[in-house]
């Protein structure tokens, strides 16, 4: 039983938690980049900026789309990234430690 416990702890601590942290970082990069493009600080047709924009969109959009379908539009502001970051933080702060204690 202890071997399974240490395997689950290792999976959570060394794989799942860092992946969730990396996803939050990608969300923040996507948010900042969208602001920079909106305010015309960076050119989205620049190859470097465009590649980062596409990479963050490919990773984040499939997760954000269901949240956008549930949340109503609020004055042109998109709160779906904030909801997703709060949900991931809840998973990292409560659900993962709870899984480690129960199993």
Order of helices and strands: HHH
Helix content, binned percent: over 70%
Largest sheet descriptor: none
Oligomer: single chain
Total number of helical segments?
3
* Poorly predicted residue ranges: none
Record field, number of beta strands? 0
Overall average pLDDT? 90
SS strand fraction: under 5%
Measured between the Cα atoms of the first and last residue, the distance is 9 Å
Broad shape:
elongated
Question: Can you tag this structure with a few keywords?
Answer:
elongated; 82% helix; 3 helices; mainly alpha; 0% strand; 103 residues
List the helices and strands and how they pair.
Layout: H1 2-38, H2 47-70, H3 80-102
Helix pairs in contact: 1-2, 1-3, 2-3
Polypeptide structure, described:
- The structure is a single chain.
- The chain is mostly helical and 103 residues long.
- The chain has helices at residues 2-38, 47-70, 80-102.
- The chain is elongated and about 55 Å long.
- The model has no long low-confidence stretch (mean pLDDT 90).
In short:
The chain is an all-alpha fold and 103 residues long.
